[in-house]
């Protein structure tokens, strides 16, 4: 008989954001093990882009990101893309390839749920940032008219990120969004960032050793933490 790995843990302050149904919680524990087996950065988000679960590859991709009160990549991915000063160091072509498409997705989410407090809060943050407000008001309509509404879908977009291994540099990143019956019932979507290795890149460890990930193994995450 194979021993079951210990389930991931979460902070007590996050209890209100996690499923109350024991079956859903148990499913997420098993789903965490599934995500950890994937070599690509992968994370679960809800309709507000609040992050519920990440794997170690995701943490490694963003391991150089400095602490921030509201915009850490494993707290709220949309806020990270829009407001974290380190986002552009990991996400290449930050404004046209990441900010504007995610703002287009946000526009659709807010239109579908205009009373949602979490989405309204993000809208208020956007309004306080002149650059992001201009992108929201003018950049998004222009981008949609050029690329079409389908371009704002989470699934299938191809973008570029800076790999954690300096020998890789900038790499192609395909975003794959998927769900399941259980995840859909919890309002969650899994996004996996398929990173393509450059031709001829070595696969051994980085000379001098590679940086340790922010955590070992999967964990459930929710609600931005002010002390990180």
Automatic annotation (TrEMBL):
Residue intervals of the MmyB-like transcription regulator ligand binding domain: 33-128
Alphabetized Pfam families for the sequence: MLTR_LBD
InterPro entries: MLTR_LBD (IPR041413)
Organism whose genome encodes this protein: Streptomyces roseus
Protein name: MmyB-like transcription regulator ligand binding domain-containing protein
Region of interest (Disordered), ranges: 201-228
């Amino acid at each position: 008989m194979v021993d079951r790995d210990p389930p991931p843990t979460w902070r007590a302050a996050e209890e209100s954001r996690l499923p109350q149904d024991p079956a859903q919680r148990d499913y997420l524990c098993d789903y965490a093990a599934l995500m950890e087996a994937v070599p690509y950065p992968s994370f679960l988000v809800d309709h507000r882009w609040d992050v519920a679960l990440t794997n170690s590859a995701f943490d490694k991709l963003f391991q150089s990101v400095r602490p921030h009160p509201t915009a850490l990549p494993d707290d709220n991915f949309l806020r990270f893309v829009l407001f974290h000063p380190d986002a552009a160091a990991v996400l290449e072509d930050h404004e046209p390839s990441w900010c504007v498409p995610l703002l287009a997705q946000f526009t659709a989410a807010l239109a579908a749920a205009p009373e949602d407090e979490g989405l309204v809060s993000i809208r208020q943050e956007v309004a306080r940032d002149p650059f992001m407000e201009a992108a929201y008001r003018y950049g998004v309509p222009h981008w949609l008219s050029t690329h079409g509404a389908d371009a704002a879908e989470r699934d299938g977009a191809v973008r570029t990120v800076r790999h954690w291994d300096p020998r890789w540099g900038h790499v192609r990143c395909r975003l794959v969004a998927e769900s399941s019956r259980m995840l859909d019932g919890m309002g969650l979507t899994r996004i996996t960032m398929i990173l393509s290795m450059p031709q001829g890149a070595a696969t051994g460890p980085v000379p001098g050793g590679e940086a340790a990930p922010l955590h070992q193994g999967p964990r459930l995450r929710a609600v931005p933490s002010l002390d990180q």
